[in-house]
Write a structure and sequence with these properties.
alpha/beta
Length: 272
């Protein structure tokens, strides 16, 4: 997705792997069958809650209540793998297919307050999940708000930072890794950015373009590192409470009738 100051970008593939390919689109590594979805759910059993194990992002066409959801990226940090869940193909089956216990689903995981899920700017993701699939996110930690709360004294907290800026500012990378990240970023943006002749429909095309697949993986790759950086700085109990409340407020507002996830207002922090 375009970064536009407050929206998401991508990182480097590093050692992360795609897991969970189905019988259908094996070449693109998509989780695109109920059988594969069951395997994903079972693989999430018993993960440690601290530090968080699950890092999530979504891609789609005009990702919101007015658009569609195409792919849900699920990085499972303890297993060093990223699942690309094919929402475009599976639809509601992605959220309602249970694991071996017959009860646990992706929806129940996303709605569990006891299972931490990390997002970067959860607002449009929450809006789309709630509007299209009735998913009421809980247990969310928002890296964007964590960064805002831990800025050095004297720096303005009026405006939010986008993912690209956070990665460039706070993730240490070797030169070759940085160059690879930037090159992959441009390939992805060129494919989906209409101003560059691209189209968001690339997220719905099957088989998934290899550059789009790489983009999707990279979009969550650096989230665990960013979370660790900001969590280590978030030492004040008062500010932890503020971040938690602001995150819950984001989720609640994204589900309201008046929410609009596009526009300049999305650039402002909650403590301006």
């Amino acid at each position: 997705m375009p970064d536009g100051g407050v929206q998401k970008s991508l990182g480097s593939m590093g050692s992360s792997q795609i897991s969970g390919p189905s019988e259908g689109d094996i070449s693109s590594g998509l989780v695109d069958s109920p059988e594969a979805m069951r395997d994903v759910i079972d693989s999430l059993a018993g993960l440690p809650p601290s530090p968080p194990s699950l890092f999530i992002d979504l891609e789609g066409v005009s990702l919101s209540r007015h658009g569609t959801v195409a792919i849900l990226q699920l990085l499972v940090q303890p297993k060093d793998c990223t699942y690309l869940i094919d929402i475009h193909s599976l639809g509601s089956k992605a959220f309602h297919t249970p694991g071996a216990d017959g009860q646990t689903t992706l929806k129940s995981i996303l709605e569990s307050d006891a299972i931490p899920k990390v997002f970067f700017d959860v607002r449009n993701d929450s809006d789309a999940l709630y509007a299209h699939f009735g998913v009421r996110l809980a247990g969310v930690q928002d890296i964007q708000l964590m960064e805002l709360a831990t800025r050095r004294q004297g720096l303005s907290t009026q405006y939010l930072n986008g993912l690209t800026k956070c990665i460039e500012k706070d993730v240490t990378m070797a030169i070759n890794e940085l160059q690879g990240w930037k090159a992959a970023k441009q390939k992805g943006v060129n494919l989906f950015d209409p101003s560059r002749g691209g189209s968001y429909e690339v997220f719905n095309a099957r088989p998934l373009d290899e550059d789009v697949r790489t983009y999707c993986i990279q979009d969550v790759k650096f989230m665990p590192k960013l979370w660790a950086v900001y969590d280590s700085k978030l030492t004040s109990p008062q500010w932890r409470k503020k971040v938690g409340k602001a995150t819950r407020d984001r989720v609640a507002f994204s589900q309201s009738a008046s929410f609009n996830g596009k526009g300049p207002h999305m650039s402002f922090g909650p403590w301006s």
